[in-house]
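Quarterly update, task 2.4: zinc ion-bound model.
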Amino acid sequence: MGKLEDQGWDVCLCKGGMELQDRNGGLFADIVKTNKVYPVELRLVASGAGLAGWTTDSGEGESTYQELLGRLGKVAMTATARGGSGPKASLWTWHCRLGHLSFKTIVELAQEGASGLEITDIPARIPGLDACFACVAAKMVHLPHKEGRSHATEYLERVYIDIAGPMHIPSARGRLYLYVAVDDYTCAIYTRLLFLKSDVPEAFKAFRAAAENESGKQLCKVMTNNTRELSMGEMRDICERDGIKLRMTVPYHPASNGVAERAIEVLTAAARAMLHDAGLPQILWAEAFSIVTYLRNRTPTRALDGLTPFELLYSMKPDLVDLRTFGAPCTIAEPSARLKKLDDRAKFCVFVGYKYGGGGYRVWDPERGVMGRNFL
Ligand SMILES: [Zn+2]
């Protein structure tokens, strides 16, 4: 510990763990105490790189993901260093856990008493997004909130729908499109992954059933653009049959379907930053989009005067205590029946998402290139 301090690290002991910060407070590790020791082997991380810029000991620059895996292969059980969760964490950790949300918004969240969020190091001058390399690389921006249109006064009164894609690479499970629905009143975002554009009606039915069943309200109006799959054929038939108004809009017009387009822009930038920061392959774009949807529904938006969509939907603040950083290394136990005597008992994976409803987390096994589910 003394050696770490000599090297310029701030070592903070807290209940059940230890945190490390560099001189600028811009980088840290969150280490969970296990059997009276802090089991971590640290590699230096480039300052301001959003915790993903793993460097060699000699500081020769960022290593590749494969190199990182190679190193972790030797120290696999130390891989929980930045995968922890819990209310107390540095501003940088929350920036990563919250999908590269602006530092200012995170501080506001903490000051407003967000459940499960406590920042251990609020600096006097709150950094901008240019302090995070992943945000710079992803061109993370704050789009101005567009005024000039009337807002719905009730959940499901008006919903904006759009699709993004085809992506240039299929997701890990072969999807190519992202379906996005934004409720005008709550700003809640719903996303669904599609194989084909023609899957839009199925996505619409799934969204509508989930939203109506949960709230007991009826969907009244759908705003969409002129994309054939969104506005013609089966979509039009469903809306006509069930008395839902289907309105076409002018692309990029603020009073129009700009709401859904803007949501796609925000989700895409955050997904890009998360993939960059985690050093994960682009094939995991679908997981990044899913997690960022989950996060954006739990973070404040200016359109709601600082409230979260979650609060408007459920009349309570979201609990952020279980959030983890996308791409955080983790270890999962291998089923013993499959193991030979000398096989490793644990497997190195990375955290890529939350399971809605069912509990647990989604993890990705980089060696086998497959998804799994586990409780970290
Ligand atoms: Zn960032």
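Highlight for this quarter: The chain is about 30% helix and 20% strand.
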